[in-house]
Amino acid sequence: MRKIKTLKKNYEFRNVLSKGKFFIGKQITIYISKNELNTNIIGIAISNKTCNAVRRNHIKRLIRENYKLVKNDLKKGYNIVFLWNKKDLVENASFEIIKKDFNFLLKKAQLL
RNA sequence: GGAGUAAAUUGAAUAGUCGCGCAUAGCAAUAUCGAAAGGUAGCGUGCGAGGAAAGUCCGGGCUCCAUAGAGCGAUGGUGCUGGAUAACAUCCAGUAAAGGAAACUUUAAGGAAAGUGCAACAGAAAAUAACCGCCUAAUAUUUUAGGUAAGGGUGAAAAGGUAAGGUAAGAGCUUACCGCUAGUAUGGUGACAUACUAGGUCAAUGCAAACCCCACCAGGAGCAACACCGAGAAAAGAGGGUUAGAAAGGCUGCUCGCCCACUUCUUAAUUUGGUGGCAUGAGAUAUAUAGUAAUAUAUAUACUAGAUAAAUGACUAUUCUUGACAGAACCCGGCUUAUAGAUUUACUUUAUUU
RNA sequence: GGCGAGUUAGCCAAGUGGUAAGGCACGAGUCUGCAAAACUCUGAUCAUCGGUUCGACUCCGAUACUCGCCU
Asked: Domains of chain A: which residue ranges?
């Protein structure tokens, strides 16, 4: 079993993106909406036109690693969607900047 | 030492902590669910993305279209010769032409006296050539008739080239050399090459990546194909049997051929979810033999990704050349395109020294 | 993943071997006391690169980008 539950269908993403609140950081934006389940569910979406498949996979891995570190401290019962900011270059993506964004954004959303 | 040509290989490494996907007859008695078969989870162990995985440009396997069948050839593709291959717009060895000082490289390279078409503008004329010009005769100072294709100019392209003879002026008109065409002989499997002989009626330009002709090849669609299982609103679908076979429709663009109609019986189609298809193969590596080579044959070795929103990452430390292009998705053989750097082999040319 | 179309001025578009029609918009001018309408004029790397041809928007190949269909 995967430890991290993920969103899979298109309409699930649309529900979160249309009805949820959003917070913008340096490289990442977060959409949050409430969930009736007891656990958190994640979705990561990076558009097709930003970069290659290799770099898209790289960004997904960085976000998952950061989510693992924070996972146990979060409040439960939310859907979270992570998006990549189009303005930033993909080559500048690094672990530490995303870590700062995570702390900043999740405090702002009062999930921590 | 410099410049260059061809072929081939490689595509950062090591250790620690945390984490991901698949497999597991390890935990004989780990935990949990279940009556059982067995399922799930944990720990451990093993394996885990390229030379192009990319583009989808060609060729095949595999599946369905009735069992994929017969004919037509609409349409599409290929096009020097011989060989290799399951097959090929691929590869190997040669021929010819073009380029380069050389090593070497490039080429969709059949047919224009089978037929049709096109060749803008310019130019006299764009394919049975005659404007200016040169020459002769007449007229009488500007024209007419005839001969001629040297010279001029136009154009991408102008009716073999150079030299001498010859002539009223000229001309393959004649001769020599070069080119061109045909025939014969020799060599080669063949494309073709070499030598000899003949031809001045060497009059028929270019374009076939214009239609077309000739030779050869191709039935259509694609793993989101297809098969099976579960749930299940509305009402249709499948199997068997019988025979008169019309119309429309479908299988494949057309024809043949096949299906359809009627009756009876049974339960299940669209949609959605899951499982299989799915990893042992026209394969890989090494050696030997045959062959100039592509490749073929034999023997040995190992089994080496299989996901389904999609698995290789993060941090720390060390070393160096400071790391480019880039992510499998049914599989295989090629082509094309992107690519930091490093290494090896063979060869050409140039400079210096001996 | 597979299959198939397309790219022409700021926008819409015709053209198919001989140097790109037209409409709307922008700009300049004429007309008018001023404006509108009308009339005249202006503007093109035919997506990019290479090949065939005397000559390519057109024919052929490769690349880039955009769009559609199949669960």
From this structure: 10-108
